[in-house]
Amino acid sequence: LWFLSLILTFFSRGKLGRYPPWPGKIVNPPKDLKKPRGKKCFFVKFFGTEDHAWIKVEQLKPYHPHKEEMIKINKGKRFQQAVDAVEEFLRKTKGKDQASSHNFNEEKNRRNSSEERGKQSTGEEKRKASLSEGKLKKGTGEGKKRVSSVSSERGSKSPLKRAQDQSPRKRGRPPKDEKDLTIPESSTVKRVMTGTVAGFKWPPSVSEPVKDSDPHFHHFLLSQTEKPAVCYQAITKKLKVCEEETGSTSIQAADSTAVNGSITPTDKKIGFLGLGLMGSGIVSNLLKMGHTVTVWNRTAEKCDLFIQEGARLGRTPAEVVSTCDITFACVSDPKAAKDLVLGPSGVLQGIRPGKCYVDMSTVDADTVTELAQVIVSRGGRFLEAPVSGNQQLSNDGMLVILAAGDRGLYEDCSSCFQAMGKTSFFLGEVGNAAKMMLIVNMVQGSFMATIAEGLTLAQVTGQSQQTLLDILNQGQLASIFLDQKCQNILQGNFKPDFYLKYIQKDLRLAIALGDSVNHPTPMAAAANEVYKRAKALDQSDNDMSAVYRAYIH
């Protein structure tokens, strides 16, 4: 058992962020899963989740020596549940070990007893036989001689045979599932870690079969620990669809960017409309994973790069839809989404029975419901699938996809979702994904405004902004998002990773969603005003972190 301290490097800025340590168990990867190149690493299952990841050797720490230290650092409920799972695992393991040891000793005693009885019985029979033979020989001495010979044979060979039978156990050879403590599979690591750790040595590989193979081997969490450009590794051709209590389902892919290298691309023709910050990364990953993609963008020049990568060019949205089986779209706002479908040469004109349309734009539930109705009225199939992430995550194939609508279409999009994201959730009927996406972005936008407010307050009160960031990065708020956005502000670099104008749009729509159900959203409303102020300062096309400038002007 190991605590896993996962270190993720921000390659764009050379800064380090740090995930909290988490307990895990080394297991063997699926047969078709290749180990990442470079430093030695192991495939680890995390307690308290069904997640797996490749972890470098230097990021592993033994459980027991670091247990108390890690519990002090991590006080979250999920972490405590993970620790409880570890302790339960150890209790069960201890019970199995004791039972196994007891059974082994009983079997040994039974076998020894049986051998002793056999020895006595055989000796008695031979003694009687030799005496009888001696009587028949009538004192010739032959019988006595033979008895002596037999006795000598027993005396010399039997101890040797017993030594051969018993020597492995006298030397402490464990049962089959315990042998070779250098194999870091679950059944051995747990035994090593409940005793001393000093003698444990890392093996050259983890190719030995895992006897307690995990039933959730195809359920993964993408945890990027290497630079995306060099992380292409085969993960799995299957994804597990897990029903949750809420009725939603999730598909989770695996460790690293286009690690999705083993994806079997659908044989369906894919269309994609909209090559903005998010759409460009999505299309790039679809092409890398072997999908056949036809692209269209309002500004045609943006299509050129993808044509060079193997995409086909569609002249209008209608043409793309009519020539493809599944067409995805990712545009900026509700108006753009409606114009794309209902406008001249729009999506609707290409829809006919069986054609599929997937809208990945972040819009309100009313808009997406209207689009679903007109698509379905023409015999088409509709799925909403807005994405959570930013430009970097889009490029890395690490988006989170929230889907709702046609469940069959959701499953048909499986290979596409694996190529573009690390996780996808199916949330039920049309409109649910739009609502969830707005809530997610409302939280994110409000948090960003609070970060900017804290940094400016530190500045005006004579405190170091860098020290504030260092403190936050050591506390419970530590995250990639926090560190990245604070670095943007400290370096004055507001190159867009998520446009400020779009997060303000999402806040506005989230506030309207709250109004529609008479639910107060005062925090989002306050943040929205700050973003509006930033827009007035001509920050719309900068990154959302440029909201900082609303506080210093």
From TrEMBL:
<dbReference type="GO" id="GO:0005634">
    <property type="term" value="C:nucleus"/>
</dbReference>
<keyword id="KW-0539">Nucleus</keyword>
<feature type="region of interest" description="Disordered">
    <location>
        <begin position="92"/>
        <end position="188"/>
    </location>
</feature>
<dbReference type="GO" id="GO:0031491">
    <property type="term" value="F:nucleosome binding"/>
</dbReference>
<dbReference type="GO" id="GO:0140673">
    <property type="term" value="P:transcription elongation-coupled chromatin remodeling"/>
</dbReference>
<dbReference type="GO" id="GO:0051287">
    <property type="term" value="F:NAD binding"/>
</dbReference>
<dbReference type="InterPro" id="IPR035501">
    <property type="entry name" value="GLYR1_PWWP"/>
</dbReference>
<dbReference type="Pfam" id="PF00855">
    <property type="entry name" value="PWWP"/>
</dbReference>
<keyword id="KW-0158">Chromosome</keyword>
<dbReference type="GO" id="GO:0050661">
    <property type="term" value="F:NADP binding"/>
</dbReference>
<dbReference type="GO" id="GO:0003677">
    <property type="term" value="F:DNA binding"/>
</dbReference>
<dbReference type="InterPro" id="IPR000313">
    <property type="entry name" value="PWWP_dom"/>
</dbReference>
<dbReference type="InterPro" id="IPR036291">
    <property type="entry name" value="NAD(P)-bd_dom_sf"/>
</dbReference>
<feature type="compositionally biased region" description="Basic and acidic residues">
    <location>
        <begin position="162"/>
        <end position="182"/>
    </location>
</feature>
<dbReference type="InterPro" id="IPR013328">
    <property type="entry name" value="6PGD_dom2"/>
</dbReference>
<dbReference type="Pfam" id="PF14833">
    <property type="entry name" value="NAD_binding_11"/>
</dbReference>
<dbReference type="GO" id="GO:0000785">
    <property type="term" value="C:chromatin"/>
</dbReference>
<dbReference type="InterPro" id="IPR029154">
    <property type="entry name" value="HIBADH-like_NADP-bd"/>
</dbReference>
<comment type="similarity">
    <text>Belongs to the HIBADH-related family. NP60 subfamily.</text>
</comment>
<feature type="domain" description="PWWP">
    <location>
        <begin position="14"/>
        <end position="66"/>
    </location>
</feature>
<protein>
    <recommendedName>
        <fullName>Cytokine-like nuclear factor N-PAC</fullName>
    </recommendedName>
</protein>
<keyword id="KW-0732">Signal</keyword>
<feature type="signal peptide">
    <location>
        <begin position="1"/>
        <end position="17"/>
    </location>
</feature>
<feature type="compositionally biased region" description="Basic and acidic residues">
    <location>
        <begin position="92"/>
        <end position="145"/>
    </location>
</feature>
<dbReference type="Pfam" id="PF03446">
    <property type="entry name" value="NAD_binding_2"/>
</dbReference>
<dbReference type="InterPro" id="IPR006115">
    <property type="entry name" value="6PGDH_NADP-bd"/>
</dbReference>
<dbReference type="InterPro" id="IPR008927">
    <property type="entry name" value="6-PGluconate_DH-like_C_sf"/>
</dbReference>
<dbReference type="InterPro" id="IPR051265">
    <property type="entry name" value="HIBADH-related_NP60_sf"/>
</dbReference>
